[in-house]
Each structure stands twice: as C-alpha cells, then as structure tokens.
C-alpha cells in the first residue's frame, strides 16, 4: 500500500510499568499493591487503548487524501476473541508487559484470563471475519468491518445432568475498555410505512424510525502502525419523536418504537444452519446494512465530489447472504435520493458488491417471505421485483430466449408449490445478481457452488463465481496461543514466518531430526499438561498428558458427525471391556461444541456423549486407558487452550457438507494430525501435507452421490457390521440413561431410519483410520515427523494469503 505505516515504535518495560501505575492510580483509583489481577487487566487495556487511539488518528490522517479503495466487510458476526494479549503482541510489547506486571508481582497470563470473550458470533463464519480483519490490517489494506453490537452474544453453555442448558451472555456488562462510542456518527433507520409514487418518483413515508449508534473497536495488525476499525451498531429509540405520538394519543405506537429500537441489537441469533423467518432478524439485517451504507457513503462524500469515483473507492463484501438487503438499499439510495436511473444504479451496485457463500445445505439458504419484506421494507420489496424483472426479461431472456422454465428457476422470487404458501425471496439469488463476484471458501466447495448451487448463473456469467480458500491468522492461532512452539520456530528459522507463513516450509528439513522432534514433542506435552489442568478444573476429571489427545471442537451438527466419533468411542470402550489388557495407547477424546437451542438431535448427541463420558471415566476396569471429556462453553478463548494441546484433529463431516472448516487449519498448524474426510479444506490440507501425513477415510463427494442414487439403507449396514450393531443397540437399550430409557431415541432413529449424513456408511472406514492412528502413535519418530510436516505445510492457510487472493481476484486492489 502506498501509505507507510510499517515502522513500529515500541515501549520499553519501564514505560509500560509507568503507564500501568499512572492508570491504576489516576483512572482506577487503586494503589498498585492493592490492585487485583482484574485491575491490572483494566489498567493494561486502557494503556493499550491510548496507543491504539493515537494510531487510529494517524491512520485516518494518512488516508484523508482518498487515494485508496477501501474494503467494507459486512457481517452479522465478528468473533474477535480476547483483545488484550492480541494487542500486546501486535504492538510488540508483550514481553515488556510481562516484565512490567511481574515487577508488580503479578503474572501476565493470569491477568489476561480476566477478559471475557466478546461472543459476537456463532462459529466459523464469525471467526473468519475476525481473522480477515487481522490480515487486512496486517497487509495495510484500508478496511472497515461493519456489524452489530449485540448486548447478548451467543448463549453460555452449561450442562445439567449432561444436558445442555443455555444462559444469556451479557459479555459487555463487565468492563469492556475496547469499544468507543461515536454518537456523532449515529444514523436514522426507517422501517415499515408505505410507498407513494408521484410523477414516477417513489416516496417512502409514514415510517417508524430507530437510531443506530456506532461503537468502534480498533483493529490492530502485526508489524504495522495502521489501526482499522470494526464499527458495530447499537439500536436506540429516536429522541423526541415518541412524545409526539404520545400527545397524539398513540401511546401504543410510541412504546412500540421504543421497544423495537431497544430490541434490535439485543441478541445474536444462535442458529447457524437453519434460519427461521423471524421478523426481528430481518430488521437486524436491514438495520446494520442501512447504518453501514449511510456511514460509508458519508465518508465517501467527505473525501470526494460527485459519484464518479464511488466504484473505484468502495468495495463491499457480503459475508454470506445475511447482509444481502444491502443490494436494494444501495439501489434505493441511488434512485430515490440521488436521482440515478435504475440501470445506472444497478450497474453501480454490481461493481461494489461481492458475496461470499458459506454453505451448500439447502435448509441453510436464506429465504424471506415476500409478505414480510413488503411489510417491513415496502420500497425494498418493490426494488427487488424491479431487479428481478430486469434480470429475467433482459439478461435471462437474452441467454435463453423464450425459456420460461429457466425464468422460473432463476427468479429471485420462488413460487410456492402449494398456492396457500407464500412467495419466498431467495437471498442467495439476490446476492449473486447484485454482485460482481461470488466466492466459495475452499476449492471443493467453490466447484460445488458452481456445479450444484448456481450452475445456471455460472453458465450465464462464467467469470463471476470464483474460489478463495479460507485461512486463519497465524498470529492468534500460533504465535499467541502456542508461545513455546512459536519460540522454537523463531529460533530454528530466524525469519519472519508470522507475516509470511509459507516460510514454515523451511521446517521440513528438521522433520527427521531427533533433537528437533524431541523439542517439538516436549512442547506438545507441556501444552497437554496445561490443558489437563483446565480439564480437571472444568470437568473434575484427571487425564494423562501422555495419552493421545484426540479433539473435535466445532458447532454441534449432524453433518459434522460428532455422532460418528461417539459410536467409535463406544466401540473402543467395548473392546477394552472385552480385553482390559489390550495393547493400545491411552486415549482422551475431547469434545467442545454448542448446539443451537432448538436443534433437538444435536442436543441429544451432547447428552449421549456426556452420559458415555460419565460411564467411561468412572470405570476402573479399563484402567484409565480411555477418557471422554466434553468441555462446556466452547468459545475462542477455550479454543486457544485446546488447539496447542491436540494430537489428533477430527474433521469428519459427510463429504460435500463442510464448506471449508477453519479449525482443521488451526489444529494442523499446531502439529495435530488430521483424521478427516475429503471435504471442504481438508482436501487442500491433504494436498499440502501429502497423503502419508494425514488419515483420510470415508466416502468422497462422488461416492456419496452414487450411494444415494443407488438407494441408501442404513439398516443394511447395521445388520452386517457386528460391532456397529452392538453399539447402536447399546445406545438404544437405555443402559446409559437408566432414569430415562428412551433418552437416545431421537439419535437412534435418525441413524437407523434415514441417516441422511451417512454416519453408518462411513463407520468402518473411520474405525480403520483410527487403527492406523494407534499404529502410528506407537512409532514416535514417525508420529513426530508427521506432526512437524503438518505444521510446516500450513503456509497456504494463513488468512494473509486469503486476503491477498481477495485483493487480486475480487477487490481489484494492488498490494
Ligand atoms: C442465518 C439466518 C438467520 C439466522 C442465522 C443465520 C446463520 C447464522 C450463522 C446462518 C449461518 C451461520 C454460520 C455459518 C457458518 O459458520 N458457516 C461456516 O463458515 C466457515 C467460514 O467460511 C466455514 O469454514 C464452515 O465450513 C462453514 O460451516
């Protein structure tokens, strides 16, 4: 980038110490010797915040000339994780802070534990957005993230008798020094009302108004003084207006507005695979889109005259279809407020919007009923019809003249099979039609997006659908969460792998070196000891750090197949009961996962794993050879503790269902070996590490589709696989839940009656792959060679590489 923000000024230990003392005494009003670790956390955070604020001002100043194209990343989720440690690393003052806190007699890592995770996302999509902000800043790309400042993030998960219970997570009710309210940048958002047309011009009147107030989080990067901004909107009632309607005797109306405004940014919806058509969710989507577009247009107007340069200065990335209403909103602004004609306005939309697809699951594709959009956003519904008409009657008609079936198939409006059902608006089609590029998130996924999801669009616009494989930031997911390994790499490579992850490849020459292997293995063991104490603290179970730590950490979903893992563990347990002297390594199977509160089978799987864990962990007969752990309340900060300690990474989705996965990358980066299907980014991971360094099993996408075509009956497999039959019968017997014998009926029925995700079909192949793992573990020099090669081969999966790809193939930004 042409702005030079690359020279990092640092602080020495004495300056950090002085800063902490000043803030403790003058801002928090406590003496250093009376301060708690929480006070130190707050003081250090406030110190970092001062530096960030300075740097934000510098960044703004350097960008004022408006010479650059800014990236606007619109996402309903940003799972940023704890910020203090990350900021200290980025500022290059982590070690200074460590020494400074030590001089006060406190341990920095204890201090960092005080921060609550901002839980502003469900899982992969939200965490990806956070990794991308880190990389955008690190690569010096001018960027804003736009989202919602939810009062309650994703629910907190606890277990009662092994069953998931949810409680609200009021994450920012504790002190949160990172957000800075910007009341001057507030926006008014209109909802409901009706549209009048006068002389061909549309007027949207009688609307309800709510305020959006922004709240800025500074986004720092590695080795740069640039600070980008994550701007999160909060809903508030408009002032003054309420009294008017109150005077007019419309008390209901005024209360309605107030309640609506305050509800908008209250909660993050906890579903990640089955959108419900809830009015409030639609309002959330429009609310943050309207605020963000108004904000970025105002910024553009402060920097430029006229609209000519808009498309070369602005690019807007839609993180899935959740912000898709941005397309008709920008069209509305251009036509109704800026007097553009429709075709020109659409052309502008199409050159600024890009859309990332994260799912092929048909039930996860967003649709909204036409009636709901027409009521909440009447002008937008008109504009959606207008876009659709233009698309079908010009573009589709030109390519497939007279083909009415094709028009039906590609229409943004889905006609119901049953006329009593409503017409539905397909947000994915709206996004494709309104964007200039559409991308999938891994090579396999993108090719399925082309072939299965949008084949006609791909024919119509052959260059529109592209791939950008996901990535993860090596700063958080190696340097910060695994400092010992980072240090070993530093001292071995003597090059800056943190900003050029491909450099890790140079570690391959050490893969067979006994000394290096020893150090690598030692670090893994240290991390396992640390995780063992977390497990003891959270679950009250002691685990052996010399056992294989086999982890599956991700949202709970049938397609991710935690149930496959469960069935296999049950089989391992049975084998041990049959022969307690079996010569097998000790194994600890570790799960962490939240289930959507309304997803009954997913919750049933959690309950089954917990019941099994209870049984296994207390069975003296198997002499600690097997332990099963379900860590509660999975979140970014817990992932940071599990990932460095993992030996085996479970990536076992049904082929064709996991768009990419990013946990797979984080785990391999930290030296875990993958047991996985040929799905999502696993395919590319296998390509990078080589098939001899990964445990691939199960049906491929083609085999899955062949099997379905032939007609799949899970009962055939159940009848013919003795071990599998035995564990399913055991699950169905009620033995694991004597107080509730039918408890696992939902799971058992799902497996035997439909098994849509082919758990049984892949069982034997999965079990065989585990046998290969056990064999490999028994030959340590072989195991550690593989582990080192995994770490060394993850260069491709840096989110820096993903962002460079976006810049080149989608955003047209030179670096
Ligand atoms: C939609 C409408 C209404 C309510 C909720 C939602 C909703 C919310 C979240 C739908 C989907 C999500 C999240 C999806 C997600 O996390 N997908 C994952 O994205 C990762 C990043 O690309 C991929 O690595 C994963 O494969 C994919 O599952």
TrEMBL record:
The modification N6-(pyridoxal phosphate)lysine is found at residue 666. This is Alpha-1,4 glucan phosphorylase. Phosphorylase is an important allosteric enzyme in carbohydrate metabolism. Enzymes from different sources differ in their regulatory mechanisms and in their natural substrates. However, all known phosphorylases share catalytic and structural properties. It holds the Pfam family Phosphorylase. Coiled coil: none annotated. GO terms for molecular function: glycogen phosphorylase activity; pyridoxal phosphate binding. CDD domains: GT35_Glycogen_Phosphorylase. InterPro entries: Glycg_phsphrylas, Glyco_trans_35, Pyridoxal_P_attach_site.
């Amino acid at each position: 980038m042409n702005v030079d923000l690359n020279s990092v000024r640092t602080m020495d230990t004495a300056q950090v110490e002085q800063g902490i003392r000043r803030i403790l005494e003058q801002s928090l009003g406590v003496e250093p010797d009376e301060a708690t670790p929480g006070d130190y956390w707050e003081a250090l955070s406030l110190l970092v915040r001062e530096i960030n604020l300075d740097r934000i001002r510098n960044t703004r100043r350097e960008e004022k000339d408006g010479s650059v194209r800014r990236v606007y990343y619109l996402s309903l989720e940003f799972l940023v994780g704890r910020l203090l440690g990350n900021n200290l690393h980025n500022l290059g003052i982590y070690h200074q802070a460590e020494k400074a806190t030590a001089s006060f007699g406190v341990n920095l890592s204890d201090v960092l534990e005080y921060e609550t995770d901002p839980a502003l996302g469900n899982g992969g999509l939200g965490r990806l957005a956070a990794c991308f902000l880190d990389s955008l800043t690190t690569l010096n790309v001018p960027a804003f993230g736009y989202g919602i400042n939810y009062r309650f993030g994703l629910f907190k998960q606890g277990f009662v008798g092994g069953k998931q219970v949810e409680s609200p997570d009021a994450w920012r009710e504790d002190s949160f020094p990172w957000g800075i309210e910007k009341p001057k940048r507030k926006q008014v958002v209109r909802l409901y009302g009706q549209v009048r047309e006068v002389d061909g011009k549309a007027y949207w009147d009688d609307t309800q108004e709510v305020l959006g107030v922004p709240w800025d989080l500074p986004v720092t990067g590695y080795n740069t003084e640039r600070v980008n901004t994550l701007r999160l909107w909060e809903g508030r009632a408009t002032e003054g207006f309420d009294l008017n309607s109150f005077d007019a005797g419309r008390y209901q109306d005024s209360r309605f507005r107030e309640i609506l405004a305050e509800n908008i940014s209250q909660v993050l919806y906890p579903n990640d695979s089955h959108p419900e058509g809830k009015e409030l969710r639609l309002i959330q989507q429009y609310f943050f889109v309207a605020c963000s577009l108004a904000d970025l247009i105002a910024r553009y107007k402060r920097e430029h005259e006229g609209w000519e340069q808009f498309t070369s200065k602005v690019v807007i990335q839609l993180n899935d279809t959740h912000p898709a209403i941005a397309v008709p909103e920008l069209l509305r602004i251009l036509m109704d407020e800026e007097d553009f004609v429709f075709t020109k306005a659409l052309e502008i939309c199409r050159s600024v919007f890009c859309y990332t697809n994260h799912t092929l699951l048909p039930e996860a594709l967003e649709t909204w009923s036409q009636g709901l959009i027409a009521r909440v956003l009447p002008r937008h519904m008109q504009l959606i019809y207008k876009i659709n008409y233009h698309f079908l009657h010009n573009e589709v008609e030109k390519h497939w003249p007279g083909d009415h079936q094709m028009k039906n198939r590609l229409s943004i409006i889905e006609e119901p099979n049953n006329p009593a059902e409503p017409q539905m608006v397909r947000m994915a089609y709206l996004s494709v039609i309104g964007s200039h590029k559409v991308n999938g998130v891994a090579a396999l996924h993108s090719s399925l997006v082309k072939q299965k999801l949008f084949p006609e669009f791909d024919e119509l616009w052959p260059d529109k659908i592209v791939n950008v494989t996901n990535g993860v930031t090596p700063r958080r997911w190696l340097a910060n969460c695994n400092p010992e390994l980072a240090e070993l790499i530093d001292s071995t490579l003597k090059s800056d792998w943190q900003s050029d992850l491909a450099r890790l490849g140079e570690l391959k020459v050490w893969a067979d070196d006994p000394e290096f292997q020893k150090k690598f293995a030692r670090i893994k063991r240290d991390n396992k000891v640390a995780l063992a104490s977390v497990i003891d603290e959270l679950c009250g179970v002691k685990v052996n750090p010399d056992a294989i730590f086999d982890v599956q950490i991700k949202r709970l979903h049938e397609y991710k197949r935690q149930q496959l893992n469960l069935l296999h563990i049950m089989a391992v347990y049975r084998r041990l009961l049959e022969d307690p002297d079996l010569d097998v390594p000790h194994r600890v199977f570790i799960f962490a996962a939240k289930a959507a509160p309304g997803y009954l089978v997913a919750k049933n799987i959690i309950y089954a794993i917990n019941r099994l864990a209870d049984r296994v962990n207390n069975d003296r007969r198997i002499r600690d050879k097997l332990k099963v752990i379900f860590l509660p309340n999975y979140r970014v900060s817990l992932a940071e503790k599990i990932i460095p300690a993992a030996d085996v990474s479970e990536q076992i989705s049904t082929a064709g269902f996991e768009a990419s996965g990013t946990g797979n990358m984080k785990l391999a980066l930290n030296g875990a070996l993958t047991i996985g299907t040929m799905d999502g980014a696993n395919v590319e991971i296998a390509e990078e590490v080589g098939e001899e360094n990964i445990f691939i099993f199960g049906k491929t996408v083609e085999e899955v589709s062949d099997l379905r075509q032939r007609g799949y009956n899970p009962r055939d497999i159940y009848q013919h696989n003795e071990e599998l039959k035995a564990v399913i019968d055991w699950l169905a017997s009620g033995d694991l839940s004597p107080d509730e014998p039918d408890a696992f009926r939902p799971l058992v029925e799902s497996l035997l009656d439909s098994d849509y995700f082919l758990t049984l079909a892949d069982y034997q192949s999965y079990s065989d792959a585990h046998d290969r793992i056990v064999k490999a573990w028994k030959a340590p020099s072989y195991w550690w060679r593989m582990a080192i090669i995994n770490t060394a081969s993850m260069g491709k999966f840096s989110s820096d590489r993903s962002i460079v790809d976006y810049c080149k193939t989608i955003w047209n930004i030179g670096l």
